Amino acid sequence: MGLAANIVLGERYRLIRRLGRGGQSEVWLGERLATGQHVAIKAHIDKDVPDPVALQRFVREARAISQLRHPNTVRLFDFGSGPAGYQFMILEYIEGETLESWLKKMAAQGHVPNQAQIIDIGVQVLRALAEAHSLGIVHRDIKPANVMMQQLAGEAPLVRLVDFGIAWVSQSVLTGLGRSMGTPAYMSPEQSMGRPVDGRTDLYSLGLVLYRCAAGRPPFDGKPMQVISQQMTAEPLSLAETTRTPLSQRLVAAVHRALAKNPEERFATATEMRLALEAASLQPLAPLQNERHYLPVRSDGTSVPATSDASCDLSTEVDLSSPKSRSRVGASES
Ligand SMILES: Nc1ncnc2c1ncn2[C@@H]1O[C@H](COP(=O)(O)OP(=O)(O)OP(=O)(O)O)[C@@H](O)[C@H]1O
Ligand SMILES: [Mg+2]
User: Fold this and answer.
1) Ligand 1 neighbours (beta carbon < 6 A)
2) Residue with the larger pLDDT of the pair 309 and 200
3) Closest C-alpha to 218, from 129, 277, 306
4) Ligand nearest to the CA of 148
5) Is the pTM of this model over 0.85?
């Protein structure tokens, strides 16, 4: 049985409309029957055959979010089972859009966010990460589709981190699942190789997100396995050259530091990276080096919007526990 509008889960929550669908879950806008309050309902869905590991991961996601209190992280209200054994999380409903869709809308108009907006996004994600990391929770799936821009009347968007679906929780009995998953365009070298990760993997992924914000595209693209190989070995083009909005040299340096292949060469903590971004906002902007290259002009004189996403598959998620994937990228299970 699939989920559908008006189904009531746990006798308390009514489904209204689907907001998103992932590999093994669906996210719905719902309402709490007693109060009419809007909530987001994330339900675990077994596709063909029951997958106990995926279900364990879903429960682990709920446990991870339940520990987090930071205002830049989504809140968990409840957890339960519904008809046909569905497990579901009741999350705070975040009214707004994902950073992915926010960036795509801007790109369609030929724009990228400016430095102040980029730093604001980075700082808020880093505040959420500082709390998660302090509790031993590594998100492992930082990407624009998992960052929401919450609209609040009269305010700049509040950045909210969602989707702890593949989070790594230290000392959890469920960590030894031997699976290394993620989205190639935003995956760190150590994650790509299936090696053990710590909070610095999230800093690398956030570096890729900030690079994408400024340049209109992440530094590595192509087919998923090509991207994974570039994450492991290729140096990104300097953001000073690829940026489409003026940035301070300190911001360029901070993004590149986050993108170091060796975690030891990155920022040690989310807070250290946040302070670097905040300091970068105080330095004057450097002029664009390469404006014409990144704003190509059509024969009629109008500029071509830099929609990065046509040429590269940024959303594919890979499960490197598949032997076929591992042998192609030389990754091993953690
Ligand atoms: N709390 C929320 N409020 C509003 N919309 C949400 C919320 N949580 C998720 N969404 C929407 O649903 C989409 C999918 O959610 P999420 O990223 O948690 O699941 P997923 O990627 O399908 O999960 P998984 O990778 O664990 O299978 C998000 O990109 C966002 O558009
Ligand atoms: Mg997601």
Assistant:
1) 19-20, 22-25, 27, 40, 42, 74, 91-94, 98, 145-146, 162-163, 165
2) 200
3) 306
4) 1
5) yes
